Amino acid sequence: MPDLREKVLEILKTVKDPELNRDLVSLGMIREVEVSEEGRVKVVVALTTKACPLKGQISEQVRQAVASIPGVSGVEVELSEMSPEERARIFGGPPKKEHLGIRDVRFVLAVASGKGGVGKSTVTVNLAVALAQQGFKSGILDADLYGPNIPLLLGFEEEERPAVIGGKIHPLVRHGVKVMSFAFLAPPGQPFIWRGPLVGKALQELAEVVEWGPLDFLLVDLPPGTGDAPLSVCHTYHPQGVILVTIPQELSVSDVRRCARMFEELKVPIFGLVENMSYLRVEGREVPVFGEGGGEHLARELGVPLLARVPLEPEVNRRREPVALDEELEAGRVFRELAEKLVQRVFGHED
Asked: Which pTM does this prediction carry?
């Protein structure tokens, strides 16, 4: 029934992706329309990602629109996923596409603090795991050359190493998250005693030889400070945004403030602030062990949202797996909510 098929395509031009605010037909999201002799219609919609948080809304809008056409006796909506090339046609190809290893990475997000010891790597790990739990393809690049702790936080053994196939390094996987760390490139316990230029060169080479494959999110765990490594990451990986991590203490807030200024100069959007170790819950009360209000005040000063206040959890130090996996722990719930907020923040900036 060619006439009915044309009517279906025409009415689908009125259905818009709620995030991109463009119709599904012009976006190339209508992959297939099948019409039976009885008037039953099947529409295949290719989402930008299978984990699209609004996929239910899109499916229902398509169903209602097609069902309103006279002569349609039934509607089936099937959801599929765009290829990296199809997504690139919509979102454009940022400069990072020139590096072969990250050509299929959709969003590169840096995680930074400007100061050590505030739990930046803990935030990175739990956020990546929470994103994976929500159906997104996530990865972590541990770019902290001098203190690569991501493997320890994820429970990797010291001798575990990624496979090298055809000159490409294939990241290890834990809890659904792909992981590459400088810790995998040296003997256990061996430090990297490198000057700045070598750090930049190593990060650039990793962008070429690590085969990430299709990812929705690659979180880059940056080392403390505002020196060579953060600059090299920004110039090589071109992150679309950064999440800043602090603790309530004024000393940490001061360092994060300087870190924020660096990203402002580099034109990297600050997606928000995470205040780690915000409080210790004792008998239902929040005890501010490291002071209070620092993260909230800094977020207000920078004009960015305070995305999460992560509590101190004794369990964090007693286990070698992310608390985001635990349904009972308060910190696990906070990290899952942080992932949801990040998805909304990132998708809201796609267009």
From this structure: 0.72
Sole residue written with tokens 């030889």: 209
Task: Give the per-residue pLDDT at 56.
Answer: 85
Closest CA to 168 of 109, 128, 229, 209: 209
Helix, strand or coil, per DSSP, at residue 258: helix
Q: What are the helix (H) ranges across the chain?
A: 2-12, 55-67, 84-91, 120-133, 150-153, 196-209, 228-237, 250-265, 294-302, 314-318, 330-347
Q: Outline where 134-227 has alpha helix (H).
A: 150-153, 196-209
Asked if residues 17 and 311 have their Cβ atoms less than 8 Å apart, the reply is no
SS3 (DSSP) at 30: strand
Q: How far is it, in rounded angstroms, from Cα 240 to Cα 247?
A: 24
> Could you give the CA distance from residue 209 to residue 188 in angstroms, rounded to a whole number?
22
Residue with tokens 């990040």: 342
Specify the pLDDT at position 55. 83
The per-residue pLDDT for 95 is: 40
Model pLDDT, residue 351: 38
Q: Which domains does the chain have, with CATH numbers?
A: 2-87 (3.30.300.130), 93-347 (3.40.50.300)
Give every CB contact of residue 206 below 8 A, 6+ residues apart in sequence. 101, 141, 169, 180
Residue 246 near residue 101, CB atoms below 8 Å:
no
pLDDT reported for residue 111: 95
**Model pLDDT, residue 305:** 92
CA-to-CA separations, 330 to 14, 35, 132, 175, 215, in angstroms, rounded: 43, 50, 19, 20, 28
**Rounded mean pLDDT for each run of 10 residues along the chain, 351 residues in total:** 82 85 87 90 85 80 93 92 70 49 86 83 95 94 84 89 91 96 78 64 82 93 77 84 88 81 87 89 77 82 91 70 87 92 74 38
* Alpha carbons 144 and 131: distance in angstroms, whole number: 21
H or E element, residue 108: strand 105-112
Token output for 56: 């239910």
Taking 3-state DSSP, the helix, strand and coil percentages for the chain, each rounded to the nearest 5, stand at 40, 25, 40
